[in-house]
Design goal:
single chain, 361 residues, alpha+beta, D-amino Acid Aminotransferase, Chain A, domain 1, D-amino Acid Aminotransferase, Chain A, domain 2, 2 domains, nine-stranded antiparallel sheet, nine-stranded mixed sheet, globular, binds pyridoxal-5'-phosphate
């Protein structure tokens, strides 16, 4: 153990943040690892960031028994590294784990991992507007077998990546009418790798047609908007903020919930409802819908310049970025502690006990 600690200290002493930090490509040189075996979680620790040996027959590789989270640590104007609503990420991580029959990581272990990683990397949290230390809690099954059943051994890793925001500019989205990202009763409402693998083919098709992202429809009727591949969806209609209701097959985003509350707080009317895509297109045509945007931890808020169909039809938005830039600024101001935090969303990463209590709430 002492030699791992020495190795970690040496690696951190030698680490330098690169000048360019696109989203999710620079990996911090240390990560946190905890193991589950003999029916319980065992104490974790910081280890060097490195390949992890996995048996080729492990359930993670053979059956996709894997879940993850996406969250960020922010550099505050003071000196403390801050986390944003980590309790929601822990809860969602627990739901994802349970859905794939993996053991839930105790809140105290989750908080310990966060404070260890963010504490060790505090000086490498980039401080530019919208920059952060992106954090990727990851959990997967280790047991090797070809029978379709779960595992008794699991690994939890907390990987970190100093990053810019995911999408810095405006995006163009294509309505996906052929493929579905998630099934009704499936895993669309949890954060597991298979959902993302299932989105890749349609996304490639939409990029080939000049768009950036697929807009997914609900798998039951194929008529109602769900979300994008890694972001929730919002529309400004008659000056009000509308978003698809949680249908059971889309992900309940932390950013989605935060923007809805923030918008209400700013006096904007909000509505979480079933949103037929054809109705939305008509609303754009007649000028009732003035703005669309996507939101998620990685991108924060990504204004949508245009929405289109595979057949080449396309609709541009009138007021790109008008409401969304206000919401983005208000959210970032809270996350980076440049403004008051009226909802009590922000917590320091440095006090593990307080962080555990926050995560458990
Ligand atoms: C499919 C999907 N929807 C929505 C989101 C937005 O969620 P959050 O705001 O919690 O990052 C994400 C990102 O995690 C996602 O992967």
């Amino acid at each position: 153990m002492a030699s791992t600690e020495t190795a970690v200290a040496g690696i951190l002493a030698d680490y330098r943040l690169p000048a360019e930090i696109p989203f999710g490509v620079e990996f911090a040189p240390v990560m946190y690892r905890a193991d589950y075996f003999d029916g319980e979680w065992h104490a974790g620790s910081l280890v060097p960031f490195a390949d992890v040996p996995v048996n080729p027959a492990a359930t993670a590789l053979q059956f996709g028994q894997q879940a993850f989270e996406g969250m960020k640590a922010y550099k505050s104007t003071g000196s403390r590294p801050l986390l944003f609503r980590p309790n929601l990420n822990w809860r969602r991580f627990a739901r994802s784990a349970d859905r794939l029959r993996m053991p839930v990581l105790p809140a105290a272990l989750f908080a310990n991992a966060l404070s260890a990683v963010v504490g060790a990397l505090a000086e490498f949290i980039p401080g530019g507007r919208g920059q952060s230390l992106y954090l990727r809690p990851t959990l997967f099954g280790l047991d090797p077998h070809f029978a379709v059943k779960g595992s008794d051994r699991f690994v939890f890793l907390l990987i970190a990546s100093p990053s810019d925001a995911y999408y810095a500019g405006q995006i163009r989205i294509m309505i996906e009418r052929e493929n579905f990202r998630a099934a009704s009763g499936g895993t669309g409402d949890v954060k597991v790798g298979g959902n993302y693998a299932a989105s890749l083919l349609a996304n490639e098709n939409c990029v080939a047609r000049g768009f950036d992202q697929s807009l997914w429809l609900d798998p039951k009727s194929g008529e109602n908007i769900e979300e994008l591949s890694a972001m929730n969806f919002m529309a400004v209609i008659d000056g009000e903020l509308h978003t698809p209701a949680l249908s059971g097959s889309l992900l309940e985003g932390v950013t989605r919930d935060s923007l809805l509350r923030l918008a209400k707080h700013l006096g904007i009317k909000v509505s979480s409802r079933t949103m037929p895509v054809d109705e939305l297109v008509r609303d754009i045509e007649v000028g009732r819908c003035s703005e669309l945007f996507a939101c998620g931890t990685g991108a924060i808020v990504a204004p949508i310049a245009a929405i289109g169909e595979a057949d080449g039809r396309e609709w541009s938005l009138r007021d790109v970025g008008q409401m969304s830039s206000k919401l983005r600024d208000a959210l970032l101001d809270i996350q980076e502690a440049n403004s008051d935090d009226p909802f009590g969303w922000v917590v320091g990463a440095d006090d593990c006990e307080a962080l555990t209590a926050f995560v458990e709430q």
